[in-house]
Amino acid sequence: MAAGPQYAVTHGRVLTRGREAPEETGMSQLLNRIGGPSCRRDLSASIVLFLIAIPLSLGIALATGAPLQAGLVSAAVGGLVAGLLGGAPLQVSGGATGLVVVTAELVQRYGWRATCAITVLAGVAQVALGALRVARAALAISPAIVHGMLAGIGVVIAIGQLHVVLGDSPDSSVIDNIAALPKELRHPHPAALLVGAITVGVLALWPRLPGKAGRAARAVPAALVAVAAATAVSAGMSLPRVDLPSWKSPALPGIPEGPVLGVVAAVVTVTLVASMESLLSAVAVDRLRTAESGPWTDGWGAARTDGGEAARAGGREAARTDGRGAAPERRPVRLDRELAGQGAANVVSGLLGGLPIAGGAMRGSANVRAGAVTRRSTMLHGVWVALCAGLLAGVLELIPLAALAALVMVVGVKMVSFAHIKNVQRNREFPVYAATLGAVVLLGVLQGVAVGIAVAALTALRRLTHTRITLAEEAGLHRVRVSGQLTFLAVPRLSRALAQLPAGSSVVVELGGWFMDHAAYDALQSWAEGHRARGGWVRLGGRSGRPIAEPASAHACRPWTPWRNHHCTRPAPAAVRDGGGQLLGGVSAFQRHTAPLVREELARLAREGQRPTQLFLTCADSRLVTSMITSSGPGDLFTVRNVGNLVPPPGSDASCDSVGAALEYAVEVLKVGSITVCGHSGCGAMQALLGSAVPAPAGGPKPPMAQTPLARWLRHGRPSLARMERIGRLGRGEVALGDRPVADELERLALVNVVQQLDHLMAHGCVARRVAEGELVLQGMYFHVGEAQAYVLEPGGSGRFSAVRPDHGAAGAAGAGGPAAGSGGVTAPVGSGGAAGAGGGSLPGWPGSLDLMR
């Protein structure tokens, strides 16, 4: 089942997240019949958006100097047109806060009708850019530039609207506004200041109301409460208030008068700022929607629901339908469609006399948190704004302008986000952010963005080319520190610095950057080889002190890749004929790549000695790579390998003391805590044993086996063969695999052999004593080579081998169990070792190693 809330409509009840909600009647049932449960949630969210949009739209229009009804037009058009055509269903569009400064300048320079024409042209440009599918290219601009631009716009808005709160009107220049502030602060308008203070206070305190009552009250938007409270307090005061002229057919946009380049620059500025604000907002709203884990829709009620038909279909994933049977497809935000939809909304808004439109993250986040499911919430909020503008104009005209100015001032302050400042500072891009912010405040939006791009380019170039090299001598050790990126541009300075080091000296080269090209690597390696040849000692290390390796190439051979598939260790044809070229190539690759990584760990093991916790006895078959299948590293396993993973009983053959000696050393000296016997599929020793079991001639003995070293060794496997013959080759017998039948007699013998060798282990006195003392555990294991699947013998003498699964890192498949006598049922719980957490199922006690060998 997909994550997120699930809904089902069954006999008039809504089932949410598996719980049954109270039976619904009346309007809720009607909405559910029309559009499903999503319709009711969209209606609720649209009312919240409407209550936010009214004061915010009027405030933005006031800040730009445009007619106040232009803000209502942009809110209605943004909801209806952008909501219908956009590619981000939960994005909410309206008058652009990021364009307040630009629009105010355009109104003062060209007039309102010409500003509407510029809005139309910018909309056409956005539609064209959407058709060209360049929306994602806008996201390539550094976030420091975008956030710096928005912060600069917020500063300009806040300073300008502060004048309105103090009872004056702002100037066109932010410098003039800053210069006039001391005078305004000395002589404010008391009533306007009171109204503004009440508005700001409610905006600050309303989201922090405590308790259940506060949580219920916060369902009403803070902006609406603040403006309503300020309006109520200002009743009877002489203050400028909203003035909405009677609605009439809008005048057509006028052609801007002035230089063509100035008009083009204005269109480009509106297009750039509106597009970036809308696209970044769409991405932010989509991330918030994903975090909220609500049901996703395609914008027309195609919400994921648990319909009765799906339940009757046998428990399949919930049916995904809308009220009209449409099946949605889970898609990311379509940015090109969103850009084109924003352009269409700007065209309509400009033609109807509205402000430039852009999507807003604040309104979009409110839409998501209000529970919106489809684009219907955005469109309905546009309908409510249009109805309010036509029917409730008298109520809106009671709002004092100081309250709207205070609201927009707070919005401007919030555009300077300290979270964004911390983020750009963490990424060392604060100079770009600060330059963009300052240039927007002092020069304008377009000029500020250009300055930000230039500073970002210079910063990136400096980081790439600026390299600092210092030399220091500490107690006879020469230390070369390289700060910054090491490229071919720094090679001459690096060579001069290295040439100053005396021959035969001990040198540590510390690289503090994150990038080194091949020219610098070759220069560094050539000098190091020459310095070592003259009797010197060199260590090359990165920022963390770890040795450096050659820059990555297109091909990366992995340690478990067979030699024949290696490219980095393949020898010359002449070297292949002598049989040792490939081995030397592999050793050379180890010295190049792996030795620098494991040298420190191996040095520790050399000082402290080996302390393995496991004895791992397995076959000498070349396909069994013990470190790979156990996720172990240096010092983890004491390994014994022989043909057939056999354990000769003590005293059986004087020539077979090597296994007994290894057992004694591991148990008595190393004090290992467990011994594992591991068989495998396709074992040649087991095949040889099966081939030796030929029937005896009638009335005569079996022919003797040839007395070769291999034949003499395989005599220790005859007890396993006899054990299998006793239980019957074709019967289930006393061995089995947990997830499938035993494939054939060869696999059955390999499993029986593991059990038999565990019995042989118990015949050794040192092993039996440690097991009896509870200090040693014996384990059986089987590895299927073709399936890369490990099986572990269950405890209790059942003879059942359970498959080790990737999720066995926390709880063992075999369960708890101590040593048990009998038919090899001496096992331990699976998956208690640390290696399982890193790489999946493993045997107990195998610690998570450094994985430096892989």
From TrEMBL:
What this protein is called in its record is SulP family inorganic anion transporter
According to Swiss-Prot or TrEMBL, what is its membrane topology?
Multi-pass membrane protein
SUPFAM superfamilies reported in the protein's UniProt record: beta-carbonic anhydrase, cab (SSF53056)
Keyword terms, alphabetized: Membrane, Transmembrane, Transmembrane helix
InterPro entries cross-referenced by the UniProt entry: Carbonic_anhydrase, Carbonic_anhydrase_sf, SLC26A/SulP_dom, SLC26A/SulP_fam
From which organism does this entry originate? Streptomyces cuspidosporus
Q: What is its main location?
A: membrane
Bias-annotated ranges (Basic and acidic residues): 306-331
Sequence similarity: Belongs to the beta-class carbonic anhydrase family.
Query: Region entry Disordered: which residue ranges?
Result: 299-331
UniProt function note:
Catalyzes the reversible hydration of carbon dioxide to form bicarbonate.
Give the superkingdom in one word: Bacteria
List all membrane-crossing ranges: 43-63, 70-90, 110-132, 144-167, 187-207, 219-239, 259-280, 383-412, 432-461
Compartment(s)? Membrane
Q: Which residues form the SLC26A/SulP transporter domain?
A: 41-289, 331-432
